[in-house]
Amino acid sequence: MRPQPGKARLRTLRPRIETIDTRSAKVPEKVVDPHYLSPEHRRWRSEVIRRAGGRCEFPGCGRAEPRMFADHIRELKDGGSPLDPANGQCLCGACHSRKTIAARELRLSMPAGTPSGHGGRGPRGV
C-alpha cells in the first residue's frame, strides 16, 4: 500500500542507547561435542530410531513424532558406550528432556569424584 500524500509514514527507529546485559551470572555458550557431528554417530542414531520403528521407547509413551531422539541409555558423561546400539533408545522430545534432566540431577547430587554407576537408566534397564 502506498502512503497517501501529506500523511507521514511510521517507521521503526533503532534504539539510541545500546542494551546492557546486567545479569550477574552469564550462561556460557553451548559447545557441541564433535562426536555428535560424526558420520558414525549419525549411523548409530539412524539404527536406534529404525530399530524402535520411530516410536518412543519410554514406558507408557509410544509416541511417534517428526523429530525423535536417539538417546544414550547410559549417558556418555557417565561412561556409556557412544556407538553401541544396545546403549541407545528412541525417545520423543518430552521423554528425552525428562530423562536427561533426571540423569543430570542425579549426577550433580553425588559428591565430587564419586563414580555415578546409575547409568541414567532407561526403559530397558541397561
Give the gist of this structure.
The chain is an alpha+beta fold and 126 residues long. The chain has two helices and two strands; from the N terminus they run H-E-E-H.
Description:
- By secondary structure, this protein is of the alpha+beta class.
- It has a domain at 36-109: His-Me finger endonuclease fold, CATH 3.40.1800.
- It contains two helices and two strands, in the order αββα.
- The protein has helices at residues 39-51, 93-109, and strands at 69-72, 88-91.
- A two-stranded antiparallel ribbon has the order 1-2.
- The radius of gyration is 23 Å and the shape is extended.
- The chain starts with 38 loop residues before the first helix and ends in a 17-residue tail after the last helix.
- The relative contact order is 0.15.
Portion in beta strands: 5-15%
Strand order of the largest sheet: 1-2
Overall pLDDT level = 84
CATH architect. name of the domain at 36-109: 3-Layer(aba) Sandwich
Radius of gyration: 23 Å
Count the beta strands: 2
Mind describing the biggest β-sheet? 2 strands, antiparallel
Helix content: 10-25%
Structural class: alpha+beta
One letter per element, helices H and strands E, the order comes to: HEEH
Q: What is the third-level CATH name, the topology of the domain at 36-109?
A: His-Me finger endonuclease fold
* Overall 3D form: extended
Number of helices in the DSSP assignment: 2
